[in-house]
Amino acid sequence: MLRLALFAVGLMALSGIASLALPRGRRAGDWFFAALMLLASGAGLVAALGTLESGASEELTLAFALAPGFRIDPLAAAFLVPVCVIPALAALYGTGYWSEAQEPRSARRVRVFLGLLAGAMGTVVLSRDAVTLLYAWETMALATFFLVVARDEEPEVRRAGWIYFVATHVGTLALLALFALLRVRTGGHELARLDPAALTPGTTTAVLVLALLGFGLKAGIVPLHVWLPGAHANAPSHVSAVLSGVLLKIGVYGLVRVLWMMPAVPRSWAAVLFGLGSVTCVFGIALAAAQDDYKRLLAYSSIENIGVILLALGLFALGLADGEPALASLGLAAAVLHVWNHALFKPLLFLVAGSVLHATETRSLSRLGGLAQKMPRVATLAALGSLAICALPPLNGFVSEWLLYSGLLRGTLLAPGAWRGGLAAVAVVLAATGALALLAFVKLFASLFLGEPRSEAGARAHDPRWSMLGPMALLALLCLAVGSAPLAAFGLASRAARSFAALDPVAAGGALAGLARIGVVSAALLVVAALGTAWLARRARVEGRARPGTWDCGFARPSARMQYGPASLVQTFTGLFAWLIVPLREEAPVVGPFPPPARHALAAPDVVLDRGVLPALRGAARAAMRLRPLQTGAIQVYVLYILFALLGLLLVR
Amino acid sequence: MATLVHLLVLLAFPPLLQGVIVKTKARFAGRVGAPLFQSYFDLFKLVRKDMVVSRTTTWIFLAGPAVSLAALLAAGLLLPLGATTAPLHFEGDLILFAYLLALGRFFTVAAALDTGSAFEGMGAAREITYACLSEPALFLGLLTLVRLTGSFEMSGLFGAPVVAGWSALGPGLVLVWVGLFVVALVENCRIPFDDPNTHLELTMIHEVMVLDHSGPALAAIFYGASIKLVLFGSLLVRLVVPVLPGGIASWGVFLAALLVFAVLVGVVESVMARLRLSYVPNLLIGAALSTGFGLVFVFLV
Question: Which residues between 31 and 70 in chain B have a beta carbon less than 8 angstroms from any beta carbon of chain A?
Fold first, then answer.
């Protein structure tokens, strides 16, 4: 299985480069790339699902100078699944969305780096030692940078690219420090279970902090998320789908792998994960609800979902620390299933966003509306995606959140002393997050697709071609499938626990009966709701009578601009959260009885980035200017510095 | 048999509650009021009528009432009502209960926004914003019961442990009950949060969202609203009457208690004025805090 997985990952990495051989400006290159990616995806899925099924672990060391080592085990396989599914579907979507004919400047570049990104993500997951992992990690980070700046002629894109570039390297530095520390303490750089003797309490704390910094930056944990909204909003939409759907989860994978390496997980780690998860959830979804740019809204919602996954990991860590296999198994299964679920509905929504952007050329919700009339298929897929991401039954998001809730509720009865109240508080945070998600996604769906168009932007919109609809439809079907067959999905996801000796998937048995019944309720709900809608539709059909307009309480001439817009929909909410959401208003004061034409714009910038990180960095830059005299520009002086540094190191030894 | 009674009560009883509320309000105003069974007549009338459907709308507009009603009926199968166990019960079903209500909300709000009407947009915005505050309050209340009874099945949240809870920490449970009562009034759009009878669209929440629905679709919405009142009513009733005598007598006690609940709602509507909209979030935060204090009580003891 490992060889098959490595073949798949290698093929992904090379597929974009191979497609360069085909002539420019034709469709052949796009389709060749998509075909290779789909082939690799099939091979990778066979390997990943096979490993999950068998629960076996395989290792391989290549006989090169640096001896890169690889391993596939159920945990790696669980995270390999989204790496196999999403980039291939994105490549297929890209043949219609970002083809060489449409984007001659960047299409070939995007293919090369999309392939490399997919291959590098797969390699990170399959790495057995820190050196292989770091090489793959850096390839992944750089490929992402070039994908984000695909439209580098726009200043906003370049700004997002640079912020990402700096953030990702801070993360890589933290990982270097983490693996260096482990190397010093344990004498090896293999990613294996650590020797309890090598871990002092100080080392354990340092491992947690460095892992959270390094992997957390990639996952987008608040307050390390500052690079994420800009990068995900400005990348081409099919790339955003891969970034949000898969790349963030590689950071999560890193955190789970570190938990796997620890011989004993301290209880304080669970507290840290719960705390960070709660902040990430609420911050992410609150900012999402306030956005006017629908791609930024989706990006912030990814932050929220990472928060949900962190809460599940907190439960997992608590179960490990306390020797409660039931809690740990539920936590891990909820985390893995939410990773998969988010890798289904978020790419679906980003591909929907891409189709809308393609058809209307605006990212502003307040300029759109009524697209369901022009793009009925995309609208239906968007409705399914929105329901799924709000964790509503009968779709898949509900299954993983239900697992998490059921673990938290169990925890309020099983966990030691003060933890019970804490877990109850976490459940309430999750409930509040769910209600806010409903606000954000009703806003997204309704502002794009329902009502009347608010501007001319969508006048010529229509459903996209099948190469773009196909991947979206497949993702939506998978969302429905997981929602209606939750037991099967749980069965597969919970096998990731086989990598942990202390865990027993059967220990989560109490959840199985519930999942079976949820499946029944979901299926029945789908049927009854569909029948009811069909009956109403039949009753609504009246032959030979024109349909009237909306009744607006006797108001004679309502115009489309009088609709409740996306900003007004969330106005009360943004008022309540004024301490977190500081809207950026741009409006001209009204002067005199006949004021001049005015312009009004509203945006919700990131408080952490604009009020915290950027001012701090500017301060650091000013401080660093004091070191300017050291930089003479003469190469001899720099060589002298190197000599001094080496001498210093020799003395320390 | 028990399931049959459950279904019968769930399907046939809810409109009567509306009648009781209207009658109570009429008596307070010194009027005779509409017949008790008027809501049934209204539903039958609406089902027979034709529909007028705006050309702005899509399938979402018709799916709104259908999905909400289906979700509310499914939620009704999870509550024990007048029996010891619900027809459908499993560990963690209270999460499904809360999320089924959220599913109904999603579709009601989306159907309102589908019409493109400014008025319906206002209602939608209010409904969905207030839900952000009432949902945590509902969860806090349910968690108190989970902690108290040691069960996380809807059917297990009531019974002997709640009776013991009333004697050991009565004040805490009163706080929870009050908080849940406020949530019930908000979720069911009653005074002091919303006025189901007003025709001034600017001040309404729920009624304004259904302005464009007519005929069978409107019937589905009204019917769904009456079921929702029964769902919240039975939560509150079972909190006060956790143990029922058993057999057919327990259904009698339960239904009588539910009618008392309806009278209580009617009394609140008669003696209070509708709140100014800007005060609603404050009261909801108050409700969440009230249930939160209840939870703290339960954890302390």
Answer: 50-60, 62-63, 65-67, 69-70
